[in-house]
Amino acid sequence: MKKLGFIFFFILSATSLTFAQKKAITLEEIWGGAFRTEGLDEIRSLKNGTQYTVLNFDRAAKTTSVDIYDYASLAKVGTVVNSANLENIPYFTSYEFTADESKVLLATEVESIFRRSSLGIYYIYDVKTGKTIKISEDKIQEPTLSPDNSKVAYVFENNIYIYDISKNSTAMVTKDGVKNKIINGVTDWVYEEEFAFVRAFDWNADGTKIAFLRFDETNVPEFSMDVYGAELYQTQQVFKYPKAGENNAIVSLHMLDVKSSEISKVALPSSYYIPRIKWMNNANMVSVQTLNRHQDNLTLYAVNAKNNKVSVLLDEKDKAYVDVTDNLTFLADDSFIWTSEKDGFNHIYLYNENGKLMNQITKGSWEVTNYYGYDQEEDRVYYQSTEDGSINRSVYSIDSSGKDKRRLTTKNGQNNADFSADFTYFINNFSNVNTPSEYSLHEALTGKRVKEILDNKALLSKLDAYEISPKEFSSIAINGNELNMWMIKPADFDASKKYPLFMFQYSGPGSQSVSNSWMASNDYWYQLLASEGYIVVCVDGRGTGFKGRDFKKVTQKELGKYEVEDQIAAAKKLSDLPYIDAERTGIWGWSYGGFMSTNCILKGNDTFEMAIAVAPVTSWAFYDTIYTERYMQTPQENPSGYDDNSPFNYPELLKGDYLLVHGTGDDNVHVQNTMRMVEALVQANKPFDWAIYPDKNHGIYGGNTRLHLYTKMTNFIKENL
User: Fold this and answer.
1) Where is the Dipeptidylpeptidase IV N-terminal domain (predicted)?
2) Which end of the chain is more exposed for a tag (fewer CB within 10 A), N or C?
3) Does 26 fall in a domain?
4) DSSP conformational letter for 653
5) Which residues pair with 300 in a beta bridge?
6) Residue 635 located in a structural domain
7) Which residues on neighbouring strands pair with residue 587, listed in sequence order?
8) Is residue 19 very low, low, confident or very high in pLDDT (cuts 50, 70, 90)?
9) 403 & 548 share domain
10) Is residue 53 within 8 Å of 80, Cβ to Cβ?
11) Rounded-to-integer distance, Cα 124 and Cα 107, Å
């Protein structure tokens, strides 16, 4: 990375036509989907390693199908299932193969619960006979077939059920599930949101046992949201939401013996949180990860399902917190691969079956950002990393001893791999700032490019008609650190003129907003703003990710302190540039970014003249336990950390123009945050603008909502900056 003043950049369009001949992007086009990139939906590698499946939608026929493609030729060679041939199933929205690929689980009539959870009507499709079986007349959660395909376990109304296919009978396994009290087999709200999983049960390898989690939410405080709808009276959604410092659900691990239906509780030495359970290859052994409340001590246990005896495989501590991932991989002998930041950067480690460290597989001042798997036959570990710069992602392989490392992708940008089941091939999804998604087939051992699968050249051709400015990447020296930055200038930029500066950031722990990747919807909006004469900038400050443990975790117990200092300092330094109008500086952000932009216009009131905050946290005391306490501990333990950076504690600092936006149906960052900020500003007699979107969740979308929101924000920027 080069320092500010020596900027390198990628030019999206090399045309020399004058910009006056080109069209400006419109909000209607952005939110109408005019610039969508094409992709491959739900790729699944088949066990034979030579073929893969893709979910295809035929919009004209209004049908869906799972089609088979050959890796070597990329030709469609067959169809697993097509809804046109199914009775009473006009379409399905997702599919999942059983382990032996003889059956497919089809999801229909799916309705969302929260971010990751849903209810649906599910069918089992027999690939050989073409027959379907409806699992339940009710909408259920997380159906999962047993290894021999004879049974399906699922969750309905907080209880686990098992459907026996041959007998066409269903047995209720747990009987104590009650809404807002006891949950069996699926996670509560905070686990789903912060530990990123919903299904909290799993079959062992021979189908004789099911390990599952039970959540006792009895003492967790309830949160309620009015749902205004279109009727005469509003309704109310009530759910358990543990805010920082409050009671969490009591979580316990249980073992079901499928044949006898007996359930036993596993006594874990420490289990405040149980963020992962995973069966080993030995059908009698299940691994369990636990965390203490501070999340600075993670223990990996092995549990013998025959007698529930517990032993420790690994114990990891960190002065700040230990991340939970899905990277744990058991090899044939139940030795295992694990990722950790314990040497200062996220790397891959190999342990034997008893938890003894065999060796550290990857090393260096860079981060492993994705672990793809291990090919035991070739002794190759496949992973993605930042070895080619923290704003890039490349795919590599290495042997388990940490030798013979190979770079499998060649282009700088975002490389995301999907490997065949036997690691013969991988499909690479590549993009960078110049290139929308390109899908190509590669040999896994060598990385050799075999064939192109899909590109988005049609989108590039379409964009030739528009006024597009290059996104310039650089670094900026702030508070002793080189921070990653991008800048978009007006297409007709004139260095002798002065332009208003509009900054975007997210800034949450471990996040990244400055990356060498293709445009998302907001990037098109920034192009629109550039066409209106604004310089748009994004800076990833301290606390963001992919530059090592210390850079990421410096914000511990002080969320909103160092991140805000960096944004204010960056704005001041950028304002010293001869072409920036120092009297016209704005900032915006969503969620954590809204928390940041609010703090910036208050604590940086001599720097920022305008700010927009969408769905912001205004006090970490209002946010959930798992996320907040990971970085802040509890309000009782760290009162100053909470109070010193809660913007409604100093509303009198507001000088500039401030727009506050929230959805009333936000189950994540509750509208309470905005209401408290509004009340503080009113009592401080500070003028501000705000917008409330009825019944909209944290994403604030649906119908015309996004267009309305971005129209409002665009007008606010043009009127006040």
Assistant:
1) 99-436
2) N
3) no
4) G
5) 289, 314
6) yes
7) 503, 611
8) very low
9) no
10) yes
11) 9
Q: Which region holds residue 203: left if phi is over 0, alpha if psi is between -120 and 50, else beta?
A: beta
Task: Please check whether residues 532 and 644 belong to one and the same domain.
Answer: yes
Q: Under a CB-based contact definition with an 8 Å cutoff, are residues 545 and 592 in contact? A: no
Integer Cα distance of 366 and 6 in angstroms: 24
Q: What pLDDT does residue 4 have?
A: 38
In 306-420 the beta strands, taken as DSSP E runs, fall at 309-317, 329-330, 336-340, 347-351, 357-360, 368-375, 380-385, 394-398, 406-407, 414-419
- Inter-residue contact 669 to 621 (CB < 8 Å): no
Residue 388 CA to residue 399 CA, distance in Å, equals 20
DSSP line for 452-516:
EEE--HHHHHHHTTB--PPEEEEEEEETTEEEEEEEE--TT--TTS-EEEEEE----TT-----S
User: How many structural domains compose the chain?
Assistant: 2
Residue 504 lies in a domain: yes
Of 365, 387, 418, which residue constitutes the final position of a domain? 418
Contacts of 143 (CB under 8 A, 6+ apart): 105, 122, 135, 152, 153, 154
Residues 236 and 228: beta-carbon distance below 8 Å: no
Give tens-digit pLDDT for 299-317: 999 999 999 999 999 999 9
Q: Do 333 and 479 lie in a common domain? A: no
| Chain segment 79-137, per-residue pLDDT in tens | 999 999 998 898 899 999 998 999 999 999 999 999 999 999 999 999 999 999 999 99
> For residue 479, what are the β-bridge partners?
none
Q: What is the 3-state secondary structure (H, E, C) of 449-468?
A: EEEEEECCHHHHHHHCCECC
Find out whether 123 and 98 touch, Cβ atoms under 8 Å.
no
Tokens 């002794």 -> residue: 379
Q: What angle, rounded to 10 degrees, do the helices at 562-575 and 592-603 form?
A: 60
CATH number at residue 532: 3.40.50.1820
Sign of CA dihedral 242, 245, 248, 253: positive
Is 280 domain-assigned? Answer: no
Percent of the chain predicted with pLDDT > 70: 97
Is residue 9's pLDDT more than 50? no
pLDDT confidence tier of residue 21, bands split at 50, 70 and 90: confident
Whether 697 and 575 share a structural domain: yes
* Ramachandran area for residue 121 (φ above 0: left; ψ -120 to 50: alpha; else beta): beta
Q: Give pLDDT, residue 411.
A: 97
Cα pseudo-dihedral 395, 401, 403, 408, rounded to 10: -20
